[in-house]
Specification:
This protein is of the alpha/beta class. The chain has six helices and three strands; from the N terminus they run αβαβαβααα.
C-alpha cells in the first residue's frame, strides 16, 4: 500500500533523491486487492508523486461490473489529471478487460506473460488486441 508514518515517508523521499542523484528513475508501486474509488486512486498516486516518484503505479481490486466501470473511468481521469506517467491496473474477477484497455486509456505500461493466464494477458493476446483495436485516448484528444 502506501506508508503513512512520517519517518518512513522521509526515508522514501531520501532514497528517491539518492536514486535521482545517481541518474536513475523511480517507479513507486502499490498493490491493493480492495476496490478503490477514483478519488482514492488519484490521491494515492498524487502522494507517490509528492514523494518524488517518476512513474506512479497502482493496482486495485475489480470484482464487479460497477467496479470495472469505475476503474475504466479512473484510468481516463488519471490520463487527464496527472502530469507524470502512470500505470493503473486492476486485479480480481472483473479485471481482465481493464488490463487490455488501460494502455489505450493512458496507462504507460502493460504487463504480459509468455502464456495466457486468468488475469494477466499474454504477449500474443496483447499484440492481437492492439493490432486490431488501433485506438488510444491521446489520439482523440488532438481533435
Amino acid at each position: 500500500e502506501l506508508a503513512t508514518d512520517p519517518a518512513a515517508v522521509g526515508k522514501q523521499k531520501a532514497l528517491i533523491r539518492e536514486i535521482h542523484e545517481r541518474g536513475g528513475k523511480v517507479v513507486m508501486s502499490s498493490h491493493m486487492p480492495q476496490f478503490r474509488t477514483q478519488d482514492e486512486i488519484l490521491a494515492h498516486l498524487q502522494a507517490q508523486s509528492e514523494r518524488g516518484a517518476d512513474i506512479l503505479k497502482i493496482v486495485c481490486g475489480c470484482n464487479s461490473e460497477e467496479e470495472l466501470n469505475s476503474q475504466i473511468a479512473a484510468t481516463m481521469m488519471l490520463s487527464r489529471t496527472l502530469t507524470k506517467p502512470f500505470i493503473h491496473l486492476s486485479g480480481g474477477s472483473w479485471s481482465r478487460l481493464h488490463r487490455f484497455l488501460s494502455p489505450m486509456l493512458g496507462s504507460a505500461i502493460a504487463f504480459a506473460k509468455n502464456t495466457s493466464g486468468e488475469l494477466q494477458p499474454s504477449v500474443r493476446e496483447y499484440r492481437n488486441v492492439f493490432a486490431n483495436m488501433q485506438w488510444h485516448i491521446g489520439d482523440n484528444r488532438k481533435v
